[in-house]
Amino acid sequence: MMIFTSPVETIAFEGHSFYVKRDDLIHPDFSGNKARKFHYFLENDFPHITKVVSHGSAQSNAMYSLSVLAKMKGWEFEYYVEHIADYLLENPHGNYKSAIDNGMKIHVGRGGPTPTNQNILYIEEGGRQKEAEYGLKILAQEIMDWQKENNIAELNIFLPSGTGTTALFLQKSLNIEGVVGVQHPTVYTCPCVGDSEYLKKQFFELEEDANYHPIIISLEKKHHFAKLYKENYKIWLKLQQQTGVEFDLLYDPLGWRVLLAHPEVFSKPALYIHQGGVLGNESMLPRYERKYGR
Predict the structure, then answer these.
(1) CATH number (domain holding residue 265)
(2) Structural domain of residue 146, as residue ranges?
(3) How far apart are CA 88 and CA 203, in angstroms?
(4) Which one, of 187, 188, 179, lies nearest residue 144 by Cα?
(5) How far apart are CA 66 and CA 100, in angstroms?
(6) pLDDT digits (tens, 9 = 90+) for 150-168
(7) What is the DSSP letter of 277?
(8) What's the rounded Cα separation, in Å, for the pair 144 and 153?
(9) Roughly how many angstroms between the first and final C-alpha of the chain, as a whole number?
(10) Domain total for the chain?
(11) 48, 52, 201, 213: which is closest to 124 by C-alpha?
(12) What is the pTM of this model?
């Protein structure tokens, strides 16, 4: 059985001290927020399921994690994308190559899977569904146990969001799960796909009670998902130099930029959730190097 725990490390970055929850270290092939989101499907038996089907982008972290899950469970895996870049087809790498190596069958074109077959497990893009709450409850308990063991009376938590599923269910679980002598931490997040209104909509589709929603913070300047920004590349390089930790190049640079722009988050001890996804750097880093140099 896979052990779903991860260490908490202390890092110094840009003159501030942070705790980092290293969910990227859960397992070499099944880690980060996708391991938490898909924990329910890994831990439970689904004797009637023979195939898992999902959709999204051709370099999705969720796509790769689902390919690992399918391989572990002995399921087929089919994935739908609207487009695959010619360069990626000619030079398979990153999440795409690893998922193909795990047996993924990919379908290209508009439209996606139709959930009609009871032998097929359908997963929403990015793992955005109720079952994700199962693994996030475990993460919440880990955090509060660690908080108590280290006598941290108050704690702010930060993580960048795509669909917002991880941040939402983490805050909800922290509010519900209690540990004696520990104040419920506050979760802050920023939108990396779309804007704050988009993220709020995602929260409400999964949880109607706004008391369970994380606090959304952002930069004033609009950010386009997956676009190359010199500021993102620079802060990613700084993180490597100052902390020795490799972060994801798609979500984490914006996350750290937003975090540093909002000192209210680290007015209390601050815990950054490292959500993995570093395999995607195989595709993002060459793009940055081509544009901005090494």
Answers:
(1) 3.40.50.1100
(2) 8-30+130-292
(3) 33
(4) 179
(5) 11
(6) 999 999 999 999 999 999 9
(7) -
(8) 10
(9) 41
(10) 2
(11) 52
(12) 0.94
